[in-house]
Amino acid sequence: MGIRSLLSNILVATGDAATQSLLKNVLDGQGRLLTVSRARQALSLARSGKLDVAVLELSLPGAEGLGLLKDLLELQPEMEIICLTGEGNIRDAVEAMRMGANDYVTTPVEPGRLIQVVERATQKAALRREARRQEDSRDVEDMVIGDSPRMKQVKYLLEKVAPTDVPVLLHGPSGAGKEVLAHAIQRRSLRRSAPFIIKNCASLSKELARSELFGHMRGSFTGATADSAGLFAEADKGTLFLDEIGDLPLDVQPSLLRALENGTYRPVGGREIRTCDVRLIFATNRNLAAAVEAGTFNEALYHRIHVFTLELPSLSEHAEDIPRLVEHFLRVLPLATGRDLRVDPAIYGCLKSYSWPGNVRELRNVIERAIILADNGLISGKGLPPEIACSSEACRAVFRASASDDELARQACACAFSPGTESAPLPSAEETQTCPPPPAADALHVPAELLRDDGSDRLDLAEKRHILHVLEKCGGNRSLAARRLGIGRRTLYRRLEEWGMA
């Protein structure tokens, strides 16, 4: 394991020109050398990017005792620090190691000793980086689920943009996982240990949006009884995720643009211009370009946040990932904890064929429901909600294969429509529970041959009985019966035609 392949960034901080020149010659080619001669320069580099190793002179100009070491460790807690100290200051070096430095080298520097110490430090740093990379990759893999081409592209772009400070715009339908993706970006960023603040712009009132983002001074408006820092101050050195950015009040958008471009803002009622060091992630399900055309979104802000856009597909566009998503939910949902759960493979065809208007969020809810209804740990078709169980013939077949007669009859109440060009609202769960059971044949006042089991499967027969029963209760009024059934008249007429009653 060679030092040349492991080093990324080495900070060389010494105020002695001869020592600095020697260190540069000894360590040349071993990595990217960043040389400084004053404490404030070292701190500036530590704030601006990742450092792997620092060779630090304890008496660096501008340093106050061991205060510089303390500040560097706070900024870069994983950095390996090697102290340079004179022969007569060994006590300071020992104290520095107690505070967190890794080793020390006395001056004048002996090149062989320096290379030995630096190589040991860089190997430790490289191992730590690799362990962190694998941990973060596992975290992201557990957060961003899917091996479909669309999701592979999302992951590829995530890996590219996460380590940068470029603003990211996440665009996709509601429920597709934009907040999860924002978390994944933050986990893979250089700001992973800093604050991660989330705010939904739809919850920001026009009157208080600027105050929530940038803070306010006491007395600046009615109700401002104390100073408030604001979200940008809370997220300093970290990441601020603004969800539903398309809902941010238009008159606040120029202030956000200024913070993005210049890193400055002014609290409401304040005179002082403040600086901020914040990475911004935005999300929306809106067409922001159309909003710009309509005059409801600031054009300059749109172009600034549109530098790097990640498009999240709807779940129906990567339905092949549904089995992996289901497995993921069975691992992480609290309802599944400690239970030996299995999935009937037959339901996957049904789940893949459904349109999923609520996307991944809806799938999660469906799996939670199925866990509750699972018999002996088996998640089967009968645990599917009516809107899915009735959505296609494939889904009906999956439901029929696992449901009892009573369950089939209850489901028929909610399934009293056929899929096609016309759709109708489904009854609520409460209405489904109170749906009347199929009455006896002689009480239906319909021809007996229509009720004879002619080979139709059980769900179709229960559906037929229920529709005819409601029609009988409505005195033959088809419009009223259709309304009570929660279906369209054309759907009812089509059913009656199939049964020879049109």
Question: Briefly, what is this?
Answer:
The chain is an alpha/beta fold and 502 residues long. It is built from 24 helices and 14 strands.
β content, as a range? 5-15%
Shape: elongated
How would a crystallographer describe the biggest sheet?
5 strands, parallel
Contiguous uncertain segments of 5+ residues: 1-7, 416-446
**Would you identify the CATH architecture of the largest domain?**
3-Layer(aba) Sandwich
Mean pLDDT level: 82
Alpha-carbon distance between the termini? 83 Å
- Number of helical segments with 4 or more residues: 24
Q: What's the number of domains? A: 4
Oligomer: single chain
Question: What is the C-alpha radius of gyration, as a whole number of Å?
Answer: 33 Å
- Mind telling me the CATH class of the largest domain? Alpha Beta
Helix content: 40-55%
Strand order within the widest beta sheet: 2-1-3-4-5
- Tally of extended strands? 14
The helix-and-strand class reads alpha/beta
CATH homologous superfamily name of the largest domain?
Answer: P-loop containing nucleotide triphosphate hydrolases
Describe the structure.
This protein folds into four domains: 3-132, Rossmann fold; 144-311, P-loop containing nucleotide triphosphate hydrolases (Rossmann fold, 3-Layer(aba) Sandwich); 315-403, Orthogonal Bundle (Helicase, Ruva Protein, domain 3), CATH 1.10.8.60; 407-502, no CATH class. It has helices at 3-6, 17-27, 39-48, 67-75, 90-99, 111-143, 149-161, 178-187, 209-214, 231-234, 253-262, 288-294, 299-305, 322-332, 346-353, 359-373, 386-389, 393-402, 405-414, 429-433, 448-451, 458-473, 478-485, 489-498, and strands at residues 9-13, 32-36, 53-57, 80-86, 103-107, 168-171, 196-200, 239-243, 264-265, 274-275, 279-284, 309-311, 342-343, 378-379. β1 (9-13), α2 and β2 (32-36) form a beta-alpha-beta unit. It is 47% helix and 12% strand. The chain is elongated. By secondary structure, the protein is of the alpha/beta class.
